[in-house]
Design a protein that fits this description.
The complex is a heterodimer of chains A (116) and B (117). By secondary structure, chain A is mostly beta strands. Chain A is built from no helices and 11 strands. In chain A, strands 2, 4, 5, 6, 9, 10 and 11 form a 7-stranded mixed β-sheet that branches. A 4-stranded antiparallel β-sheet of chain A has the order 1-3-8-7, with no helix packed on it. In chain A, a hairpin with a 5-residue loop joins strand 4 and strand 5. Chain B is mainly β and 117 residues long. Helices cover 0% and strands 47% of the residues of chain B. Chain B has no helices and 12 strands. In chain B, the strands form 3 sheets. In chain B, strands 2, 5, 6, 10, 11 and 12 form a 6-stranded mixed β-sheet that branches. Chain B has a 4-stranded antiparallel β-sheet with strand order 3-9-8-7, with no helix packed on it. A two-stranded antiparallel ribbon of chain B has the order 1-4. The chains are: A mainly beta (116), B mainly beta (117). At the A-B interface, strand 4, strand 5 and strand 9 of A face strand 5 and strand 6 of B.
């Protein structure tokens, strides 16, 4: 079945460490996204990529980095510069273009990051 | 700043009854999409329904329907014949200005729906 796989599901980090969250999709979607969710809040966009080897900052990109070397993969690195990284991270993908399907996001199951 | 407002942090409904979740938004676009996503306890977001702004007819997906008031910038979700499996957090979302053909979305704060047996 097609879908998005995020790993790990749970991750613990010591202060000062970088960690990388994995996101892989087999939906043949061009665009991929990383959202952050804090308790009682909606999702906020961290980074997004509409094509391979290209990505743009979202609303809260500081302290995060991404790469898009393959269409299927969009890993997110939470760096030590991110002062409050404890959150739930959701990866999503969508088709690209001017069709009505361009806006529909398919989400992964998420990764919970906790800073110790 | 563009915003999406869900004024009901929590709602509850009796099983088999109907409930309406409210959402207002702010955009200067004339053609855009609006979405309702559901986040069950598993935390995986699932698309519930979407509405194309240029269509006057309200979207319907089985027990889920919307009341779209474009002039008022209101986009409420009605759940009929509520089931226990409808218990979840519901998010309203729409694309920010200039992003109507991408997957970028602005999300509301969410409404937690409790379904009572």
């Amino acid at each position: 079945d097609g879908g998005i796989t995020q790993s790990p599901k749970y991750l613990f980090r010591k202060e000062g460490q970088n960690v990388t969250l994995s996101c892989e999709q087999n939906l043949n979607h061009d665009a991929m996204y990383w959202y952050r969710q804090d308790p009682g809040q909606g999702l906020r966009l961290i980074y997004y990529s509409q094509i391979v080897n290209d990505f743009q900052k979202g609303d809260i990109a500081e302290g995060y980095s991404v790469s898009r070397e393959k269409k299927e993969s969009f890993p997110l690195t939470v760096t030590s510069a991110q002062k409050n990284p404890t959150a739930f991270y959701l990866c999503a993908s969508s088709s690209r273009g001017h069709s009505s399907g361009a806006n529909v996001l398919t989400f992964g199951a998420g990764s919970r990051l906790t800073v110790l | 700043a563009q915003t999406v407002t869900q004024s009901q942090p929590e709602m509850s409904v009796q099983e088999a009854e109907t409930v309406t979740l409210s959402c207002t938004y702010d955009t200067s676009e004339s053609d855009y999409y609006l979405f309702w996503y559901k986040q069950p306890p598993s935390r995986q977001m699932i698309l519930v329904i979407r509405q194309e702004a240029y269509k006057q007819q309200n979207a319907t997906e089985n027990r889920f329907s919307v009341n779209f008031q474009k002039a008022a910038k209101s986009f409420s979700l009605k759940i009929s014949d509520s089931q226990l499996g409808d218990a979840a957090m519901y998010f309203c979302a729409y694309p920010p200005h200039g992003s109507s053909n991408t997957g970028k979305l602005i999300f509301g704060q969410g409404t937690t729906l409790q379904v009572k047996p």
